[in-house]
Amino acid sequence: MRLSKLIYTTLLFLTAGTFSIKAQDKKTTDKKTTETKTEEKAVTEEIEVVRPYKPILAEAVKLRRSPDLNDVKTYKAKFNYSLTDRKLELNSDINKLYAQEVAAERQTEIINNYVKAGLGSAGTILGEAYINMGRDEALQAGGFFRHFSQEGKLEGQKFNQQQLTVFGRSIGEKAVLSGRVNYERKGLYFYGYDELNPLRNLDPQKQAFNFIEAEGEIVNKYTEDENALSYAAKINGYIWGDQLSAKENVVTINGYLNKRISSFNLGLAASTELGKTKDELTSVSNNLLRLNPYIRLQANGIKITAGINFVQEFGAVSKSRIFPAVTADFTLIPDYLQIFAEVKGDVNRTSMKDLTDENPFLNSNINIQNSIEKFSFSAGIKGTGGPGFGYKARVYRKEITDMPLFVNNFTNFNKFDVIYDFGNMKLLGLEGELSVQVSDQLKWTGKLNLEDYKPSNETYSWFKPQLRISSNLDYKITDKIGFNAAVAIQDASNAKVYTSAPADPYLIPDPANETVTSVKGFVDLGIGATYKINNKFSAFAKANNLLNTKYSRYLYYQSIGVSVFGGISYSF
């Protein structure tokens, strides 16, 4: 049956192909007839027609059989298991977060040590050095050295000074310990020059002072606990001597306790000064004991301290005294305006060290006697007027018994004795301070003192000027160039000159054998400049007494005229 179908199909294709070929070949004969022509002409043309091929397929053979849906094979995957014996932990706590460490910052180079050296006119020689060990703020140690010398045109008008200090400080958890050892030496001549008699002192005598000091201190660290107990203790001792025969030994012990109870403070300050001064003809033991119990109220801008100052003198003099010790401070405008006042009294211990610091041209065998500050009152205002501006002004009144004064010796005019104004000297004064800092480049400070002395027995308070003015200006022109200027102004003072030998011992002045000489006032102007070469080296220059004034702080002792010096400093 399939074979017959195949034969029939083949014949059908062949027949269809034959008819198709014939249909594409067509011959046409056209006859044209006209009225004048009788000729017939036959034209035959072949036309080929092309069309898309459309194949004809036989009907596909269909399968009349349905698939077997039940013939399903199961796929089994192969697995390899590795079991771990691990305990299950349930932890619902928040894990601690650890901050990522920041890379270590490069430490800045600290330059806090320096060496300075300079030379100049008037035989000026300057040498200075400062050394501080390490970066640790809780442990500091270092040293300081300084040498300075100058000389003038007068015979023996020269002096030199050396200082060497070693210090240390340790900050612990509860207390701060500090200590230092200090050595000072001053060399000079008694070069006093009398213009009316230039031949009086052709061979000035040499003098030198040596001073050795040691000090230790312990202070508790500050705490914000309202009921904290504060304490401090300090011991200081020194040995002093001159080139002649004077010697002095002093030991001072200070203690302090303070208990805070809310807004109140209960405290006690105590001190002991044990001293002995010796010379060829004198020997004085001069000791003091002070006790200062107090109570203090501090709250809401008010600070009031009330107490007493008990002073016991023993040694050459034995006497007990009690003075008031009251201070008050009221803040009217925080940081801008404060009013303060103080009423106190004390015994001022006289020592050769203090006297020679004020006037180094002292005679031998100086009489040592304490002065009594029976009453002292001061009141004033202080505060700031904005960033970089500060001020302080106060008036004070003092009543001092046995105030020490300097007078020229009758035999040796170029040496000074110490006398005491027996009785109550009254002093009325005005003090003012002003500080202005426009910027980091410009700063100015000034101080004024006006004092009116009313001596008890003496004609004048000798060598005590009524007016003193000091001022300092620092101006940084650029990062490398700096300028500074200083001026000191002092009013005239009075000196006593004996026309005949005074009584020995000296008690009461005798106007019949003394005259009064005026010591002229002066203006001392100095300027300086610095130039920073680099971070290590700097250059400096300084000029003193630019007005070249031949002034005297003490009679017959002219100051050195204008002096200019400069040098180099190295920091490391």
What does this structure look like?
The protein is mainly beta. 5% of the residues lie in helices and 55% in strands. The chain is elongated and about 170 Å long. The termini are far apart. About 5% of the residues have low confidence.
What is the helical fraction, as a range of percent? under 10%
Average pLDDT metric: 87
Number of helices: 2
Name the shape in a single word: elongated
Summarize the structure.
The chain has 572 residues and is mostly beta strands. 5% of the residues lie in helices and 55% in strands.
Which descriptors apply to this entry?
mainly beta, 26 strands, 22-stranded antiparallel beta barrel, elongated, two-stranded antiparallel sheet, 572 residues
Q: How is the topology of this model organized?
A:
Layout: H1 2-24, E1 114-120, E2 124-133, E3 139-151, E4 158-171, E5 175-189, E6 206-220, E7 229-242, E8 247-261, E9 264-278, E10 283-299, E11 302-315, E12 319-333, E13 337-348, H2 352-358, E14 371-386, E15 389-408, E16 416-437, E17 442-454, E18 467-476, E19 481-490, E20 493-498, E21 514-519, E22 522-532, E23 537-544, E24 552-554, E25 557-558, E26 563-571
Antiparallel strand pairs: 1-2, 1-26, 2-3, 3-4, 4-5, 5-6, 6-7, 7-8, 8-9, 9-10, 10-11, 11-12, 12-13, 13-14, 14-15, 15-16, 16-17, 17-18, 18-19, 19-22, 20-21, 22-23, 23-26, 24-25
